[in-house]
Amino acid sequence: MIRAEYRFHLPVPPEQGFDVLSDPTRDPEWQSACAHTRLLDGAVGAGCRYEIAFQILGRRLDFTVEITDFIPGRHSRFVTVEGPFRYVGSYHYHRRADGTTDVQWTFDVDPGDYFGILPEVLLKKVLINQVKKDSSSLSKQLAAAPPPS
Amino acid sequence: MEPLASTLVQTRAARVVPASSQQVGLWFIHQADPSCAAYHLLFAAEVVAGPEVGDRVREVLTDLVREHEALRVCFRPGQDGPVQYVEHAVPLDLRHRDARHLDPDALRRQVRADSRAPFDLTAAPLWRIHLYRTGEESWVVAFVAHHIAVDFWSLAMLLAEVRSRLNGTASLFPLDGSAFADHARNQSAYLASGAASGLLAAEAERLAEAPSSIDLCGDRPRPPVPSHEGGSVPFTLSPAVSDGVRVLARETASTRYMTLLAAYNVMLSRLSGQPEVLVGTPTSGRLQRRLRHALGNFVNTVVVRGHVDEASTYRELLAATRERVVAAMRGQELPFPWLVRMLAPQRDPSRTPLFQAGFAWDRLPFLANMGQFFLLEPDPSTAVTVAGARLRPYPVPQQEGQTDLWAEMGGERDGGYVGVLRYNTDIFTEGTARGLAATFVATVEALVGRPDVPMRQLSRCDRQQAAALDRWGHGPVRELPDTTLPALIRAQAGRTPDATALVADGEQWSYARLQRAVDAVAAAVRTAGAGPGACVAVLAERGAPLVAALLGVLEAGAAYVPLDPQLPAARLGYMAADSGARLLLTQERLRAHWPAEIPACRLDDVLADGAGLSGHGTVREPAAAGAHPAASTDLAYVLYTSGSTGRPKGVAVPHRALINLLLSMRAETGFSPSDGLLAVTTVSFDIAALELFLPLVAGGRVIMWDGAAADGAALAARIAESGATWIQATPTSWRMLRDAGWDGSPRLHVLCGGEELPAELADFLAPRVASLRNVYGPTETTVWSTAGVVRPSAGVDLGSPLANTQLLVLDGSGRRVEPGFPGELHIGGAGLADGYWRRQELTAERFVTGLPAAPDRRLYRTGDRVRWTSDGRLLYHGRLDSQVKLRGHRIELGEVEATFQAMDGVAAAVAVVRDDRLVAYLVAEPGVTLAPSALRTSAALTLPQYLVPNLVIILPELPRTANHKIDRSRLPAPSPETDVPFTQPRDAVEITLARVWGELLGLPQVSIHANFFELGGHSLLAVQLAAAVRAEWGRELPVSTLLTHGTIAELAAVIRRDEQDTVRGPLVTLRRGDTARRPLFLFHPFGGTIFCYLELAKHLPPGRAIHALEAPGLDRAGDAEVSVEEMATRYLAHLREAQPHGPYALGGWCFGGVIAFEAAGQLHALGEETDLIAAIDTRAPVPANVPEGADDATLLSWFARDLAVPFGTTLDVPAEELRSLGTDDAFDQILARAAAIGVLPGDSDRAQLLRYFEAYLANGIALQTYFPDPTALDLLLLRATDEPADHGPALGWEPLIRGSLEVVDVPGDHNSVMYPPHAATVAAAIAQWMGEHPR
Asked: A2-144 belongs to which homologous superfamily?
């Protein structure tokens, strides 16, 4: 089991950050490794399932995932239902004094032999590095976007 | 100064004429040193005259300038050197100064300074007149000309002409101011002629195998390039001696010049210690009639090859000198600079070519009544009147510093010849120069006075000099007690029985305990039947028992023979046998070293049996029964030193000599009962006697050091914690301590001896210790014969003689030599040894009596070349024989040579010391192949470590002189030969060690399996290596570790073993550079290692440091970075420690170019500049360049392949094979095969291979996920033209680079581009973009 964690900042209120990060349909907008998502059973919320495809380390990975926790502006959690290996992810949102948001990302994954010879320590770094890059880009996008009217 | 007074004479364009060879020579000297005033000619006079004379002089000069082209020349660069420009209009350069306020000394200084003001050779005129107004109608006038334009003869003719014109009398001769213009052309044509070729051949033959230089024994170290600064001292021969010169010249059909030159040669021969001396002497160069009255520079210098054999008489020497001068004059038409070029003698830029001393004889017959004007000490009554003006000589030194020494004669005063000795102030003090001048006068007097007596029978010192030598060379006379060393110590023990005598092995021995131990040993020795007259070998480890044993032997009346257990068994056996030792006092644990066939007495038993050896107590009188105390004249010890015949020789030292040393040094040092001396020297080195016994005769403490002799750090620590107040060591040991970081101790008094104390070491030591004494003495005169406190500002000398010691500096004929002159140091007095043990012939050769300087005194010939300075300081000038001192050890090269010559297969052997290393050059017998390492090993079986050459070089034959003697000067520079083929380093630890070894050993590359000591390393360098390891890894490695882990591979394994616990940065210095210039940083390629830059670093232009950054994950599991951005950020943190601010020069091969690009971007974001990003065959980080995915086996196969590339080998492990093995077995397979072909260190394990693979994968991931935005940076892309994969003309960089994108094609494919031969081309391509780049 690998646990990858990363804390990053978004220059928007937690609710606005939640709308982007915790909505799997918007994953392709900001996750560079995410090739595709599709909701399988209704609106985004707790109990909702979706398909998600990643392109990572030269491989395409297809998963079916279920959202287990969904508290807007506070917290969301998701768990794989089907896929090459199991993972559990979560976002926790913390409002800063200036109204912007700190996000705590946690990702537990058990890749088994899926990545073959790739050491887990590298996989963990890859995951964190990916979120680091993506969240940085997202933060810039959000900062540049006009405030919601 | 008043404005320049100038008068334009004509105005037309300049005429260009070639420059003569002599002028070209002077022009080059001026180019090298534009401030050089050594070639300024000068005439100066005090003048009393009315203003009308000045006007008239100006008119005359104006006319002369108009009439004579020679006065209007200057020199400018042409195609092949300078050419001469004849200007048609030049101003008179008259420089006025009102000097009425200057006192005479100040005026003289001003005139001297002005006369030395440099000329601009490109601007005519190259002469000027300085006018100093000293009164209403009085002046000092100085005419200064550059020798390139006129010679001394021309200057004199000009003076004569001016005088004639001012007086309105007819000219003495028709001055020719134009002939010079054809001179160079005529000279050039002549030099192309057969006549010149014939003369050249004759000169080549005449000067063949002449000494390349004469060492005139200066006071100061010769600078690498002469400064052309000098001084002048006058001298005078008495009228009687001058008459003698005239008579002798007449009788021998010689000239006075030849007569005095012969005497000058005698002086130079004595000064240099060489029979052959080359002397430069000027000739007028006016052989053709048309040049007789020409203005210009025609003078030429010829080289007279003198040979002085003091067995001959002066008359015989004079006859030979005449022949030699005539021979030299035959070649006078060959200009000296041309001759030097054609003969191409061995050059030393610190010396003038061919000769370093000159002798000139200048007579100006047409200026007879003005001869005094050219003397440095003219007759004060001299005055001449010219056109109503009254002129008196105003002597100003001139032409100083052209050579080391230059005697100029020809003038006379009051019937005696006078002269000036010019000397180079780079190397001579004025005092020495005055002494040399006085000696020359005395030499002429002695030679001329007894021309028919062999010169070696003539005395050399005048009374005044002899008195000074007596004063300086005699130590204080002190009465020596008629006693022995053990008696002195027993008396001390009686006075202070409970005081600490010895600190050793973690315990303290009181004097009483020591005395009881001594008595016990003495009793054992007597019981064994060894008493007075017998030798007892002492073989013991350093410690209190050793001291007790030595003293116990003496107490028994016998003499000890110290045996160092570190010496080879064969040598110990020889020493024991040769000394005839009747008994061996030793320790059980040294049984393996015991020489056979000598009864052994175990110290362990003797000291254990001795009742009451511990604790306090009283001191008894010596045992009466059977005791036969030694007399002061009895032998105290026999100490073996290196012997030239191949066997060590024993020096037999009596008690009296030892007592004299100890009491004299006690008085010299003031050693007191409160002092402690840290004894560091092996007992087989005679100076150990002082360390072990001086404290005991003074009631102080001996603190025994038992650590490794070469472990500077440990010794430094011991000095600090021991409380020692005195220590004696060789300069080598002090350098070792300094290199180990020791920074002195203000309570420590230092004795430094055993070899020459370098000034820089004295500079270091003196301010860091309580006192620094230089001590000197051979074993044969009992440890030290001189001592003196060193004051670095005054230079390092040998000090003064100890009590009851006499120092005599004698020449080969046994005469005392004059102060300033070198000779062999002879030592007499109470310190003399009895001689060499059982070597009567050798004793008679070295311990001599009946020498002319001291017929009744027994003296030891030291073989050391020394000289007294004019102020009574004794300076060391090396050895007169083949004995050398190396790192404090006395080495007879003959012993080393004899050892090798005795080996099978060796036809000839020569040993020399080069660059602080002992080097043996060997020639093999026909058909034999010699292996250097095996030969060293064989030598070590019989020779002590310090006599085993650091390098063994095999030559096809030894260079020989025409007389078939071995020409040591032509032995090739030692380059280490090793039987080990070159293997390059395999990781950063080895790379760094290889770089450090290369720097220490002066080698361009070092195989990781070559032994440090076989490559010329020695103990001192080992200390520096330890310091480098400490600086690089923060690890204290005992020097003993370096001795036992002698290769880079072995040492790296030791370092690696502990490196896992330390965090080391990724920066690896491939080459150190000039700190004033910015480094080049190279980032690792795919895989993270940096071997690929080793070859490149060799070829990049020198001067700039080259650092490489390797992937951190290679050393620590889990440390690999998976993003290019993170890598760059991390590397920049280290890079900026080496260079805090830009502009930066970055580069990298393959993936390294991508990191360099990202790093430059990050630096740019921080506001720093990067002026070079060199990407060597780096594909752009764009999606199109991302390779297809691969399975694990394929990745492993690629990994194995890439692992081997830097080593110029292949590791082809097919993916199919790995796929069938499974991951773990696949790793093991790669590990085994990589280690087998040497691409991984031998101590590599699976974990290391995994780290390498992790870094490899991490790099791959980083590359796959790095797609930067376009940037305004410039990029230099070196594209490997032979790479089959096509990635476009700029490898895809076009969309990323918005600055300049330079693509340079280099040969090779993607892998081979970094290795020979292509790396040199890549380096050359990068070099073009590197520039000077100061920090």
From this structure: START domain (3.30.530.20)
